[in-house]
Amino acid sequence: MQTIQPKNKIWEVIFASSAGTLIEWYDFYIFGSLSLIIAEKFFPASNPTLAYIATLATFAVGFIVRPFGAIVFGRLGDLVGRKYTFLLTLLLMGGATFAIGLVPSYQKIGVFATIIILALRLIQGLALGGEYGGAATYVAEHSPQNQRGYYTSFIQTTATLGLFLSLGVILITRTVMPADSFSAWGWRIPFLLSVFLVIMSYYIRIRLHESPMFTQLKAEGKVAKNPLKESFGNKENLKMVLLALFGATMGQGVVWYTGQFYALSFLQKTMNIEFVQSNVIIAIALLLGTPFFIVFGKLSDKIGRKKIMLAGMLIAAIGYYPIYKAMDNTANISLKTEITSSRLVERSMVTMPDGADARKVIETRFYDDGTKVKETKTTATGSTDTSKIETKQEVSLGMQNVIWLIALIFIQVLFVTLVYGPIAAFLVELFPTHIRYTSMSLPYHLGNGVIGGLLPTVATILVLSTGNHFAGLIYPISIALICFVIGLLFIKEKNVEEPENVEQAVNETV
């Protein structure tokens, strides 16, 4: 039977596991938060749109390799133990993130910069593939059976808090230095700072003991001899892996990335909202929404995991289009009245990256609702080729519109908390203890990492190919609905009050 831990011990476990997982998510997502700058630094500047897509693809690579990390580190976790496996993933993630902050730009070392960034992104993805399953399993195996949703929900907050932390560090760095300095070298600081966070987290984690359920298995000689074979070679367990993927994690994945990363991308690339303002909007919405991970995690202990997760997928699929339409309207200048008497025009000469002289014209227009639109046109001196005119638009919104956007993104974060809050407990309870790390990690990282992680790239391609900037929503809406139907029809709700018998669980799958 499961060993019940004293309450102070459980909170120590939650704190140590959550701190490390938060740092790993910070490391992983800081790349996405700075994708616009990374596109400029590590890819050819001749085609900014293509460079941005290439950056998103590199960002996606980290997600695509996460299932491989789940297999490698999941197997290690079921053979050696939960604690030492997620210590290793923490060090790999921290080292790769720190190294990204040191890589010379494309202008200095050419295509080697792109290759190095891609390799480091692969290491990040592999490390994260082993982290989540270990942390969730470790916390769950220290928790009372009927409170797993509540206690594991603290691990669920770490992904969003990691993104929030990355945005916070970026904003602080950006505001304490001139924009030119941040663009030139200041963007490296958030990557380099991660080394201190990793050292702190490693110190906290190294003091932990192994999971009591794994310790019990080890003492009884019932540790899995071949976790991969026992996880995926057993028909019943493989069926659970597939149901977890197609009936839960892929829907959770697209809802997670739509409500946070795609929302940020939509603000910056489609609506052209100014960098600091867009990040502040997302950060406030995340901060307001984060407590609901715990609310829905705890609620799942009372009414079940399935109902809450499927409700989140369905509501999100129905709500996305009207929400993004409303977001888009806040920056639609055709719906606003310009104050023409306040228009400003600035002209100057600048030097292009290739050394050529260019004319820069900055036109700033003001509108009656507090919106400010700054349009910058840069033209090479003596050139009459309009295709060589570089145009950038930056929109700053008035306070009323900012509050409205925070509310719209907060609603999306609520969708995220519905599907994500209970899912760690759901996955842990789906698989037996001796192969749990391996079995739960793979469907989670396929659904969340690959299907969810590809969302920004797929959505951007859909928008560019159709010319409709709402076309990107087709992907998350479709996946969420498919997952809702499969989960509704084929996943059975588990009785969360039912005690877990470790010996029986082993015998059922061997």
TrEMBL record:
Keywords: Cell membrane, Membrane, Transmembrane, Transmembrane helix, Transport
Pfam families from the UniProt entry: Sugar_tr
GO molecular function: transmembrane transporter activity
Domain Major facilitator superfamily (MFS) profile intervals: 13-495
Transmembrane segments: 12-38, 50-73, 85-103, 109-129, 150-173, 185-204, 241-263, 275-296, 308-324, 402-430, 442-464, 470-491
Protein localization: Cell membrane
GO (cellular component) term, any one: plasma membrane
Protein topology in the membrane: Multi-pass membrane protein
Keyword Heme appears in the UniProt entry: no
Keyword Transmembrane helix appears in the UniProt entry: yes
Protein name from the UniProt record: MHS family MFS transporter
